[in-house]
């Protein structure tokens, strides 16, 4: 597929733009305090896009773990160098103590999202996303930005990721990999 986000076509007015997908995994560690990870997937076409992401934190001292996730439907706006999306869906949160006690609390709510992927020059990829949602336990805000290098459909990236809720504040740098299919 190369550097563009869709298959090249000579006639873009013809219906049937290629369906595409992206999967990613990122992680970060602050020694002796906590580890965190993020996994995500997006699948889309020229009319609708579905995405899901889960973000987790485990604190070493008390084995307390938090997981936050979203599942959204979005309307994509795509050009050769820019992919933007706006949509909404569900947000969830889990809290548990690992490995002994299991699930402690669960909350479900709504989420709105906006994001963009920008391809300024090959092989650079700049991405950002903002989520705002409500859970039974209160508001959740999530912001992330990343810069990556794309090599044959694989993006190596560094990101800044911040999530704030009533139960947890997760933030800081992460390193990761994304596969663009």
Descriptive report:
The chain has 181 residues and is mainly β. The chain has a single domain, classed as Porin, CATH 2.40.160. The protein has no helices and 10 strands. Strands 1-2-3-4-5-6-7-8-9-10 form a 10-stranded antiparallel β-barrel. The termini are close together. Residues 1-16 have low confidence and may be disordered.
Residue share in β-strands: over 45%
CATH C-level name: Mainly Beta
**Run of helices and strands:** EEEEEEEEEE
Write down the overall mean pLDDT: 81
Could you list the spans in which at least 5 consecutive residues all have pLDDT below 50?
1-16
What is the fold-level CATH name, i.e. the topology? Porin
What topology does this entry show?
Elements: E1 20-30, E2 34-44, E3 49-59, E4 64-78, E5 82-97, E6 102-118, E7 124-135, E8 138-151, E9 154-164, E10 169-180
List the keywords.
single chain, 181 residues, mainly beta, Porin, 10-stranded antiparallel barrel, 10 strands, globular
Q: Briefly, what is this?
A:
With 181 residues, the chain is mainly beta.
């Amino acid at each position: 597929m190369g550097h563009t986000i869709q298959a090249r076509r000579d006639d873009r007015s013809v219906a049937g733009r290629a369906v595409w997908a992206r999967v990613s995994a990122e992680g970060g560690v602050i020694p002796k305090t906590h580890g965190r990870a993020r996994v995500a997937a997006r699948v889309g076409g020229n009319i609708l896009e579905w995405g899901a992401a889960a973000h987790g934190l485990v604190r070493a001292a008390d084995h307390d773990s938090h997981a936050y996730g979203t599942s959204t439907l979005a309307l994509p706006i795509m050009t050769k160098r820019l992919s933007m999306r706006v949509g909404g869906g569900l947000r969830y949160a889990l809290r548990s103590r690992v490995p002994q006690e299991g699930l402690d609390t669960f909350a479900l709510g709504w989420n709105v999202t906006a994001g963009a992927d920008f391809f300024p020059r090959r092989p650079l990829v700049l991405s950002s996303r903002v989520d705002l949602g409500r859970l039974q336990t209160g508001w959740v805000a999530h912001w992330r930005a990343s810069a990556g290098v794309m090599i044959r459909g694989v993006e190596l990236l560094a990101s800044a990721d911040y999530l704030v809720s009533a139960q947890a504040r997760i933030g800081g740098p992460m390193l990761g990999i994304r596969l663009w299919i």
